[in-house]
Design brief:
Layout (H helix, E strand, L loop, with lengths): L11 H30 L3 H27 L19 H28 L3 H31 L3 H11 L13
The structure holds MU-OXO-diiron.
């Protein structure tokens, strides 16, 4: 019986795009770490903590792609990570840039999903489902913060409170204390 095209080895196009996504996720981590550093220097330790945790999350995303490529027997192809921007005009500009970046990542995930369909790779489609849902949350989080900041309009006491609120974000992991 002819079952048509059955993929047990990943198509090159799919593999290349998954490798590209490892780079996109590590760059996301780098960008948010850069935003964390900007907030540290601007005396917003809570925004810095939030961005640090976001940077951790992005590394987890990168590792999910990494693990999946390995599991499928694909070759990992790590590329150079672009230098991220290091200054923003104000906190709201940084969070708006984060939101725009998340929109870009959503479009990347959608493109990966489309590619998985094109090459008839249902395993990758199912793997990507988690990211499709995650991106809805990622955009909603950034968008909510931008909306709050726009409402506050840089009023110092409200910015102080928001900084405190975002600083309560729980890290995914903490660094071990050096012996
Ligand atoms: Fe990995 Fe924020 O998307």
């Amino acid at each position: 019986m002819d079952y048509g095209k059955v993929n047990d080895i990943m198509e090159k196009k799919m593999l290349d795009e998954l490798n590209n996504q490892i780079n996109e996720e590590i760059f996301s981590s780098y960008l948010y770490l850069s935003m964390a550093a900007y907030f540290e220097n601007s005396n917003f330790p809570g925004f810095a903590t939030w961005m640090e945790v976001q940077a951790q999350e992005e590394m987890v995303h990168a590792m999910k792609f990494y693990g999946y490529v390995i599991e499928r027997g694909g070759k990992i192809d790590l590329k150079a990570i672009e230098k991220p921007q290091s200054e923003w005009e104000s906190p709201v500009h940084a969070f708006k840039a984060a939101l725009e970046h998340e929109k870009h990542i959503t479009s990347r995930i959608n493109y990966l999903y489309k590619t998985a369909r094109e090459v008839i790779d249902p395993a990758t489609e199912i793997f990507l489902n988690w990211f499709v849902t995650e991106q809805v949350e990622e955009e909603a989080n950034a968008s909510e913060i931008v909306a709050k900041m726009e409402m506050i309009k840089d009023a110092p006491s409200a910015m102080y409170m928001l900084d405190k609120e975002l600083g309560a974000r729980i890290p995914l992991y903490t660094m071990p204390v050096a012996q």
